[in-house]
Amino acid sequence: MHGLIRFGVGALLCRLTVDGRENVPPTGGCVVASNHNIGPDYVVLGYGASRQIFYMAKKETFGIHPLLDRFLWAVGAFPVERGKRDQGAIQEAVDLVQSGRVLGMFPEGTRSKDGVLQKGRSGAIRIAVEAGVPILPAAVTNSNELMQRLLFKLWRRPAVTVRFGPPIYPVQGENSPQTIRKLTHQTMVAIATLLPPEKRGPYAEDVDQWVAQD
Fold first, then answer.
1. Of the candidates 75, 87, 91, the residue with the CA atom closest to the CA atom of residue 9
2. What beta strand segments (E) does 12-134 contain?
3. Going by DSSP bridges, is the β-strand pair 102-105/77-80 parallel, antiparallel, or unpaired?
4. What is the spatial order of strands in the sheet that 15-19 belongs to?
5. pTM above 0.85?
6. Angstrom distance (rounded) from CA 164 to CA 152
């Protein structure tokens, strides 16, 4: 079913462009840190990465309907108990990437209604540092148009882009607040560089400075 979903995204539902696929580690665990639009970003990322990406989802999401369960497992969602302490959920994610799998996370913490990047949170970085795996910045553009097609405009195949940047390699165990803040900011700036200038939000100036120094 995962292959069927990937075919549908790439060939039937939209005109998908993938840049930077060579940056995706071919083996081993990593944390994909991406922006989050009002659209099926998790499906688009999974197609673009050419590796199965796993995502944490509320346990209550499972068991509603067998077809929904099949879809969730196909796109890589795995259940996490609501109300579970953050550390418990983090440990599940750490175990996942240490087993050699790819974990997808959205550091903004919530979907951006207009596609403009929001301030990042540190959860994805904490998991990567604790597990000792690379952080892979990624950006999805125009997936909101894909959602509109699914709901209202079945005749359209919107142009959707997913980009992967070079991996960021944290030092395992270096989890001081200062280090986590620095890595979080570095990751968000890396995501912003993959977005159109008008979508970079609070990191636009940092991208401009980075480009000027390069």
1. 75
2. 15-19, 30-34, 53-58, 77-80, 102-105
3. unpaired
4. 15-19, 159-164, 135-141, 30-34, 102-105, 53-58, 77-80
5. no
6. 29
Tens digits of residue pLDDT in 58-89: 676 666 667 766 666 666 676 666 555 556 67
Whether 100 contacts 25, CB under 8 Å:
no
Structure tokens at 109: 């913490």
Whether 107 and 180 have beta carbons less than 8 Å apart is answered as no
**Calpha distance 42→121 (Å, rounded):** 18
Burial class of 26 by CB neighbour count within 10 A (0 to 12, 13 to 18, 19+): exposed
Higher pLDDT, 193 or 151: 193
Please compute the mean of the pLDDT values over residues 180-195 and round it to a whole number.
97
Q: Which amino acid is at 175?
A: N
Q: Confidence band (pLDDT; 50, 70, 90) for 35?
A: very high
As a whole number of angstroms, the distance between CA 196 and CA 141 comes to 8
SS3 of residue 33 by DSSP:
strand
User: What tokens appear for 158 in the block?
Assistant: 């919107």
CA-CA-CA-CA dihedral for 58, 59, 60, 64, to nearest 10: 120
DSSP readout, 56-71? EEEGGGTTS-HHHHHH
